[in-house]
Design brief:
By secondary structure, the chain is of the alpha/beta class. The protein contains 11 helices and 12 strands.
Amino acid sequence: MNLYALSIFTEVAKHRSVTRAAEALGLTQPAVTAQVRKLEKELGVTLLSPRGRGIQLTDVGEMLMGYAHRLFAIEREMELKVEDWKRGMSGSVRIGVSNLPAYRLLPSWIASFKRHYPDVEVKLITSNAQQVFDLLLEYRVDVGIVGGEHVVSAVEQERVFEEQYWFIVPKGHRLAGEQAALAEILEEPFLFREKGSTARETLLTLCREHKLPPPKVGLELNGTNEGIQAVRAGFGAMLVPSLLVREDVESGEVGRVYVRDVNLSVPIYLCTRAGESVSPSVRNLVEVVRR
C-alpha cells in the first residue's frame, strides 16, 4: 500500500474537505485528489463520495480511516522511541566489571546513571579483569571496568579512579598495625585470588620488581570478600583494595601491615573496544563515570 497516498487520504478524511486538506498539507487540490484516486485504484474501492458541497467517507473509507489512525500512531511512537534511543534515554548497557569496582565504585555510578536514565536497562557481569577483557572482545558486554594495568591492543582504556592496595593479616598477628619489610610479610601464607585477577597480578609484579620470590599460596579463592573473611577468621595474609577492607581495619577485625618502601596504587580503567563508536546509552554511562 502507498503510505504517502494513505497519509493524504487521512488528512482529507479528517477535514472532510479536499480544499482544507490541501491547505493543511501545502499541496494543490489536484495533487491531493490525484493521490486519493491513486489509493482507490490500488485498493479497488471507492473511499470518498460527494455530500453537498463537501465529501463523506464510504463504509470502506471509514474502516480504512480507523486502521490508518492506528498505523500512523505506531509510526509516531516509533519515531519517538528512536529519538529516545538517539539521546540515550532508552536501550541497554551491558557492563563487565572486575571485583573491586563492582563492589565499591559501580553501585554509586549506576545509581547516578539510573537517576538520569531510568528507562535504560543495565546488565552486569562480575568477573576478574582478564575475563572482563574477554567478554568485551567477544561482544558479550558493551563496556568494561577493571582495576590494574593491562595491555590489550584491541581495547581502549581510560583511567577513571586510583585505588590503594593494603596488606592485611588477622587481628592479634605480630605484624598487625606494624611496619615491616616486604620480605617479612611475604613469609606468611598468602590468600591468592585466581589467575587473571588484578590483586594476584599486582602482588606477583611487586615481587618481581623487588627481586623476591612470591609467597607461599596458603589458599586460592575466586573472590576478594571470601579472602577477607578467611583473614578475619585468623588465617593468612592478603593484598586487598583498601576500599574493600577499610572498615575491617578501622574496627580491628583485621590488621593492616605497613610495608616499608611500598605504596601500591592501582588504577581503575573504563574500557571499550578500540576503533568502535559506542551507543548513546553507553556514551551517557561513560560521562557519568567520568564525573
